[in-house]
């Protein structure tokens, strides 16, 4: 994935059409200088065919954030999830995370039905079969009645697992590139501090009655902030906003609007936890469905998973920074900052959530092509990625901006 950044030249209408098909890494406020086409059609937000294409080409070949180090802190800790309909179990074995298909090879029961727990051995809940860390079978009760044992089918199926910062990722696709390869050039947002410097504040879920792309597009654009988040989340003037567009995702940097008193208090808190910690808001969107937000001493992670053509589930976690050499006072301050940040994040997301049903309804009835402003160019980059990966054909007239007549409608 290209990591070099370069200034984007002024775009003519022809250049705009080319850029919309082949986005280039770039940084300098807004990359594009004129409005952009809405690449996806409204029907792409409710089509069963499109839904299946996205699952097959966007989600299954991807790394997925499934939990955090907080979920499996001690040896023997485990948690279970369902990932794209596949039951998985992630377990801490002597400080390393391992992921297994949560199905026993004996009689097909899930190994565990618990959401999380601790067990000294990797053991099936049904007949007590035990397994080694590599998935091979260990102790089998009354094993003499299973002779001869081939040793093959009796092994658990393992999946690739990787840890980045405080986050645990799993891939169901053995051909998936390594996580560090996929994370470039976005690694800075979680590699800035070791994983154990991040204290888990809270994790929660939303079930939205909208296509996952509706939520993704809303998350990466700042155009709606002034009208939707009037007193909860706004940026300083647009000349403070910077965009980067890469092959595998996008980055937004901005300065959050705050009162002088709030800014002074934030500086004081961060100085106690890590002097020099940047107050800049940084939003990293790793295509297609992972969002990492960093500001002052907080890290927010959000992932989106389609649950139907017109619904999705969002999982959100908030982490706050620990002091490098902790004291009772710094631990208290870390917890306090998490209790301040978490309700603020929930308020912003609730304000967005109130819009999603109306956006989905509009998508299902819209006769318009739509258009995208330069301030919303990260939406365009995301749509191009979806279109390219799903093999959608973009008509020539869609490579040009929407006409003034359509805008007036």
TrEMBL record:
Cofactor: Fe cation
Top-level taxonomic group: Bacteria
Pfam families per UniProt: Rieske (PF00355), Ring_hydroxyl_A (PF00848)
SUPFAM superfamilies in UniProt: Bet v1-like (SSF55961), ISP domain (SSF50022)
Keyword Metal-binding: yes
Keyword Ligase listed: no
Ranges of residues in domain Rieske: 63-170
The entry's keywords: 2Fe-2S, Dioxygenase, Iron, Iron-sulfur, Metal-binding, Oxidoreductase
CDD domains reported for this sequence: RHO_alpha_C, Rieske_RO_Alpha_N
GO MF annotations in UniProt: dioxygenase activity
Protein name: Aromatic ring-hydroxylating dioxygenase subunit alpha
Species assigned in the record: Rhodopirellula halodulae
